[in-house]
Amino acid sequence: MPAEAAAMPPRRLALTRGNVCLLFVGIAVVLVPFADLAVANANPWAALSKFAAGFLAPDFAAVSDLGRAVLLTLAFAVAGVALGGAAGFALALASRSRGVRGLATTLRSIHELFWALLLMQPFGPSALTGVLAIALPYAGIFAKVYGEMLEEADRRPADVLPKGTGAVSAFLYARLPLALAPMKVYGLYRVECGIRSSAVIGFVGLPTLGFELDSFFRQGEYGAVAAILLTYYLLIGTIRWWMRAKLLPLYFAAALAVLLSLGTVSPDWANVVRVFTVDIVPAPLRGADLFAPATWAALAAWLKIVLVDQAAPGLVATFVVTQLTLVVMGIVALGGFALLVRNVVGRIGARAGHVVLVVLRSTPEYMLAYLALQVLGPSMLPAVIALGLHNGAIIAHLLGREGERLSQTLRPDAPRGLDLYGYELVPRLFGPFLAYACYRWEIVMRESAIVGILGVATLGFFIDSAIAEIRLDRALVLIAVTVAATAAIDFVSRRIRAGLALGAFGGVAAQRFPAR
Known about the structure:
It contains 22 helices and no strands. It has helices at residues 3-7, 17-31, 44-56, 66-92, 98-109, 112-123, 127-152, 156-159, 167-201, 209-219, 222-237, 239-242, 248-260, 269-279, 293-336, 342-362, 365-376, 380-408, 417-450, 459-468, 472-499, 509-512. The model is unreliable at 1-13 and 504-516 (pLDDT under 50).
């Protein structure tokens, strides 16, 4: 071997978009042997036929409180998103601080359903519980997205400002105006997500569409279930027509009025104090002598039980579901966005594709998982399929709108159909696809935890069990593990996006959503 060759440093694997995709697929392939992907239901078609029969004959008359449930669903969504957006914008202004980023990561790492379950302990089933359950995780989400939009804004206007211009003036007149348009359209998009979250918190007893859905589902009245879902899909499918930025103050005022109609539920302050001073304190430390070695030995033994017997297996299962879901999500997103491009599937095909994607991305992920569990039986497979379809449809929707815009800018003699899809749209949209996939990664982790409520042995299974047993100290430790795992994924995601120079939101948001 020549001396020059021997002196050359070893070649490192380049961080390219193709290599990143291969890495994620490779990890999923390695994890398949550790995943429970069995079809446990001996007759899945029988369960599927029962659901289909109900959906073929929706029974609106059976849902007597449908109108009230719709109003409360919208009220919780608008109030929660507004409060979360305001708090998230404030956090975004200091997003360069590690402490602020850590707070934002913690807030968004805890699913709104877990927030609702935790807040129910001190505040009960009140309007405050519902609004905060949405606002707290959304504040973390808004902080991340708005912070990145501000970072990606063009810095050249600020660089040419006169010397001595104050930081506040530079921000208000040179930075914020460039990020304001994508921030506004993203806020409108989050209202759609807020409607889904509002339905989610209905499953813990708050009077939204989710509460009605869960009640009729448990009774096996699938006609009523179909009526609720059709109403829900109608809300999501028409949001582009009735949701306007100029009307948001009016919607917010109406939401407050509707929520106040629930009546005020005075918290039991003795219970509030007990929750924050006793229940969340680790059991071995309650009333114990903190200077006694036996106390800390008991705490170590308690932590070992929680971390080894529950957190460790739950974290492994959550990671397996997350990584397998990413692959399914990618397949659905890259294949599904073409359903919205008229030059690929035709006008009728695009309308049908819009309906399919609205249904998949609007149905709460755990409800899809519940349906899949009834058909396929208890295993990780229903969770992977449900989360993959749900998150893949969200990305497909975002890419499809951009793909439709791109297809309309091409020459009249440009190719159509599969040629347009394969040679024009996929290469141009692959960067945004990776950006969205990296962004959804931590969300998929969070959702993989929440499906544990349905019996899949992810972290959510152990968290839900601890809350049900009113062991909030154990639940908080498990939630802390979830937060740490989400923070790790967020860190890796940011590094990948920085290494690939992927701008997730600022550059395409204004094109993705028409000005309203």
